[in-house]
């Protein structure tokens, strides 16, 4: 799978992400992990990219399983002894049962298949945590936005679509009615962090 350069090396990926997050890249994962309770013993991390959540799960004795389409990220996780697999989420009939299902910074990749991905996330866990960027250079018009789209090609080609706060909330409202779930907005900054629970 052909990707942009930042997806080919975990260290370069971390460098770029820290620049984008003004050296607060780690805080995104800390905020996500803070929503995992002591009673949650298993975590499914979709499009995990980095291993911060996996490392925290290991520290606290929680079972972690990660799916990502990027072979480089999966190799990095496996080298560290984590249960990571190369998986195309759209080709899976269902996701394995777990206490918590996480997706961070990747939902926009599935804009054309939100119904499919969200339904499988909701069916596999009573708690779903989504962290999604809502302030993006790639959403800007002109050359900066175009370069950002190309530079952050995860393997599907240049992707112009990104959520903003309004469109993300509208998406949640739409699907909460369809799938009967409730959600809580935990924080809104560069990313929006939400916790979804099945009603």
Strand content: 15-25%
| Oligomeric category | single chain
Q: Name the CATH class.
A: Alpha Beta
Number of domains: 1
Task: Tell me the number of helical segments per DSSP (H or I, 4 or more residues long).
Answer: 7
Proportion of residues in helical segments:
25-40%
How far apart are the first and last residues' alpha carbons, in Å? 38 Å
Which consecutive residue ranges, at least 5 long each, have pLDDT under 50?
Answer: 142-148
How would you describe the shape? globular
Major sheet details: 7 strands, mixed
Short summary:
With 199 residues, this protein is an alpha/beta fold. It has helices spanning 10-20, 25-33, 52-59, 71-79, 114-124, 143-151, 165-179, and strands at 42-46, 63-68, 84-86, 100-104, 127-133, 181-188, 191-198. It has a seven-stranded mixed beta sheet with strand order 3-2-1-4-5-7-6, sandwiched between helices.
Write the layout of secondary structure elements.
Layout: H1 10-20, H2 25-33, E1 42-46, H3 52-59, E2 63-68, H4 71-79, E3 84-86, E4 100-104, H5 114-124, E5 127-133, H6 143-151, H7 165-179, E6 181-188, E7 191-198
Parallel strand pairs: 1-2, 1-4, 2-3, 4-5
Antiparallel strand pairs: 5-7, 6-7
Characterization of the model:
The protein has a single domain, classed as Rossmann fold (3-Layer(aba) Sandwich). It has 7 helices and 7 strands, in the order ααβαβαββαβααββ. It has helices spanning 10-20, 25-33, 52-59, 71-79, 114-124, 143-151, 165-179; strands spanning 42-46, 63-68, 84-86, 100-104, 127-133, 181-188, 191-198. It has a 7-stranded mixed beta sheet, with helices on both faces. Residues 142-148 have low confidence and may be disordered.
